[in-house]
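Follow-up to my post from last week.
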Amino acid sequence: MKRIAESTVRRLSLYLGFLEDINRRGTTTVSSEELAKLGGTTSAQVRKDLSLFGSFGKRGLGYSVTELLERLRRIMGLERRWRVCIIGAGKIGAALAQYEGFSQRGFDVVAVYDSNPARVGEALGDLHVRDVAFFERDAESEKFDIAVLAIPARGAQKMAERVARAGIAAILNFVPGQLTAPPKVAMRTVNMAMELEALSFALTNRD
Amino acid sequence: MKRIAESTVRRLSLYLGFLEDINRRGTTTVSSEELAKLGGTTSAQVRKDLSLFGSFGKRGLGYSVTELLERLRRIMGLERRWRVCIIGAGKIGAALAQYEGFSQRGFDVVAVYDSNPARVGEALGDLHVRDVAFFERDAESEKFDIAVLAIPARGAQKMAERVARAGIAAILNFVPGQLTAPPKVAMRTVNMAMELEALSFALTNRD
DNA sequence: ACATGTGAACTGCTTCACAGCG
DNA sequence: CGCTGTGAAGCAGTTCACATGT
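User reply:
Got it. Predicted complex:
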């Protein structure tokens, strides 16, 4: 399959959200123009994005909401559920562990780890924090698909490599600081400080 | 000033982080090649990014770490500190309120709001949660620069408009769902579900 | 008539390659 | 000589515009 731009993937994810709303409202048909308006883009962009994966619409009419929903779910890999482990039970890790939004979208947080003995055993929702020493053992039996890294920068690179060695091919990275994805691992980084700095830049350099 | 691409801003923020590390180590000079390696980009890209704002380097030698640090801080608007309020004291809002990374980078969380009476008054670090009914009154006297929205999707658009009307020109948006930035407001969105979906896509469509 | 699907044109970011200067 | 700064070239993503199918 041809390479898909990251911006396209982001938009597909957006469209999927819109379609879920639209479907809940009982609307059965949607045009590229309507999706474009919701997503702040153009109808041509929507059609181009979808056309990368096939022709799902009916000329003169638009797209069937349920059909497009199903197609997009398949494209995004959301026909199945994903097993997520969180590494780091600090403020952010703990908040993520209890965030309901994940399971609603098909991601089940099935384990939380920390290296701090004071935190091990602590309850987070219906999980309890495990010692990260057991991470490799568990990864083998529990088949984690995605690891969320929510630990301090120091030691994070080592941990990322442990994750990769344990056979996990995707990392969601909340580490504040430099982290290089191990080979063959898909990584997405969320860096709060960087987002705030972008706002600082925008405020400082407006018009 | 000419328009700066979002990708460029993200990289400048990265370079800034690297320079802080490098400076802490006592190194005084850095080349575009070294910054490129740290940031996973090319030396030409680094030079191009910096050249958008001036010529800070010395040919044959590289960049003075302290000078480039100062220049970048000025460019990013980080010579001053920014006053941040958080709206929503749920899991994510509470975690953000207590996240030390913000103040380290120049962002002071000075207030947290919630609409739920059960949460109002609760202590978060050395702040206590205020009733969002007082948001407008406080915004006037406390001069918030940036609002972090960490509330459910329902009602978020209204809240964004209250933020804008209160004269705050920047929003960091953690709302899971559609949110349109009010006119003249700079907004950055962090959507965890979208990041996970991008990983799902990558895992499903690899090679 | 209407909205999709898609080559072609366009825009803008990235990479190249080298002149310029310490 | 080495590394920056930068026009020019290359490439990727977006927008245009229209032929196509219903």
